[in-house]
Task: structure prediction
Amino acid sequence: DDEVLILDLNPYITDATTSVVMNVTVTAPVAAGFVTVFPCDVDIPNASNLNFTVRQDVPNLVTVPVAIDGTVCMVTTAVAAGLWYAVISSQQKTLQTIGALRESQLPVAM
Result:
Protein backbone atom coordinates (compact mmCIF):
# COMPACT_ATOMS: atom_id res chain seq x y z
CA ASP A 1 0.00 0.00 0.00
CA ASP A 2 1.08 3.56 -0.68
CA GLU A 3 1.98 5.75 2.29
CA VAL A 4 -0.43 8.62 2.84
CA LEU A 5 0.98 11.99 3.89
CA ILE A 6 -1.37 13.95 6.16
CA LEU A 7 -1.09 17.75 5.94
CA ASP A 8 -2.53 19.54 8.97
CA LEU A 9 -3.73 22.90 7.66
CA ASN A 10 -5.36 24.07 10.91
CA PRO A 11 -2.72 26.73 11.69
CA TYR A 12 -3.40 28.33 8.29
CA ILE A 13 -7.16 28.09 7.79
CA THR A 14 -10.35 29.04 9.62
CA ASP A 15 -13.16 26.77 10.78
CA ALA A 16 -15.20 28.05 7.84
CA THR A 17 -12.67 26.93 5.21
CA THR A 18 -14.10 24.26 2.93
CA SER A 19 -11.32 23.98 0.32
CA VAL A 20 -7.81 25.13 -0.54
CA VAL A 21 -5.88 25.78 -3.74
CA MET A 22 -2.46 24.12 -3.76
CA ASN A 23 0.49 24.05 -6.13
CA VAL A 24 1.75 20.45 -6.13
CA THR A 25 5.02 19.67 -7.93
CA VAL A 26 6.96 16.44 -8.40
CA THR A 27 10.65 16.65 -9.37
CA ALA A 28 12.88 14.00 -10.92
CA PRO A 29 10.79 10.88 -10.28
CA VAL A 30 12.60 7.56 -10.71
CA ALA A 31 9.52 5.94 -12.29
CA ALA A 32 6.29 6.94 -13.97
CA GLY A 33 3.44 7.53 -11.58
CA PHE A 34 0.90 9.92 -10.16
CA VAL A 35 0.02 12.06 -7.14
CA THR A 36 -3.46 12.21 -5.64
CA VAL A 37 -4.52 14.98 -3.25
CA PHE A 38 -7.76 14.53 -1.31
CA PRO A 39 -9.54 15.35 1.96
CA CYS A 40 -8.36 12.94 4.66
CA ASP A 41 -11.87 12.01 5.77
CA VAL A 42 -12.64 10.08 2.56
CA ASP A 43 -11.11 7.04 0.86
CA ILE A 44 -8.32 7.60 -1.66
CA PRO A 45 -10.09 8.48 -4.93
CA ASN A 46 -9.53 6.59 -8.17
CA ALA A 47 -8.29 9.75 -9.86
CA SER A 48 -4.99 11.62 -9.88
CA ASN A 49 -4.15 15.30 -9.73
CA LEU A 50 -0.70 14.97 -11.26
CA ASN A 51 0.73 12.42 -13.71
CA PHE A 52 4.43 12.10 -14.54
CA THR A 53 7.04 10.02 -16.33
CA VAL A 54 10.64 9.23 -15.37
CA ARG A 55 12.76 12.35 -14.61
CA GLN A 56 9.87 14.65 -15.55
CA ASP A 57 9.28 17.72 -13.35
CA VAL A 58 5.53 18.39 -13.29
CA PRO A 59 3.58 21.09 -11.44
CA ASN A 60 -0.19 21.29 -11.15
CA LEU A 61 -2.66 23.63 -9.49
CA VAL A 62 -5.04 21.58 -7.35
CA THR A 63 -8.27 22.64 -5.66
CA VAL A 64 -9.10 20.19 -2.90
CA PRO A 65 -11.77 20.07 -0.20
CA VAL A 66 -10.49 20.17 3.38
CA ALA A 67 -11.54 17.37 5.75
CA ILE A 68 -13.70 18.23 8.74
CA ASP A 69 -10.58 18.02 10.97
CA GLY A 70 -8.66 20.53 8.79
CA THR A 71 -6.49 18.01 6.95
CA VAL A 72 -5.61 17.25 3.35
CA CYS A 73 -3.88 14.02 2.31
CA MET A 74 -1.39 13.27 -0.47
CA VAL A 75 -0.30 9.93 -1.91
CA THR A 76 2.11 9.18 -4.74
CA THR A 77 3.07 5.98 -6.54
CA ALA A 78 6.75 6.64 -7.24
CA VAL A 79 9.81 7.93 -5.40
CA ALA A 80 10.98 11.34 -6.60
CA ALA A 81 13.78 13.75 -5.78
CA GLY A 82 11.10 16.06 -4.43
CA LEU A 83 7.38 16.27 -3.84
CA TRP A 84 6.57 19.88 -3.07
CA TYR A 85 3.34 21.54 -2.04
CA ALA A 86 2.31 25.11 -1.38
CA VAL A 87 -1.12 26.16 -0.20
CA ILE A 88 -1.87 29.27 -2.20
CA SER A 89 -5.30 30.26 -0.95
CA SER A 90 -8.37 29.16 0.90
CA GLN A 91 -11.97 30.16 0.68
CA GLN A 92 -11.35 33.15 2.95
CA LYS A 93 -7.77 34.41 2.79
CA THR A 94 -4.47 34.20 0.95
CA LEU A 95 -1.89 31.95 2.59
CA GLN A 96 1.87 31.73 2.45
CA THR A 97 3.72 28.62 1.34
CA ILE A 98 3.34 26.27 4.29
CA GLY A 99 5.45 23.31 3.38
CA ALA A 100 7.81 21.44 1.17
CA LEU A 101 8.77 17.84 1.66
CA ARG A 102 11.31 15.41 0.32
CA GLU A 103 10.74 11.81 -0.71
CA SER A 104 12.41 10.63 2.48
CA GLN A 105 9.40 12.05 4.32
CA LEU A 106 6.95 10.33 1.98
CA PRO A 107 7.95 6.67 1.55
CA VAL A 108 6.02 5.03 -1.23
CA ALA A 109 5.53 1.55 -2.61
CA MET A 110 6.90 0.91 -6.06
Observations:
- The first strand starts at residue 5 and ends at 8.
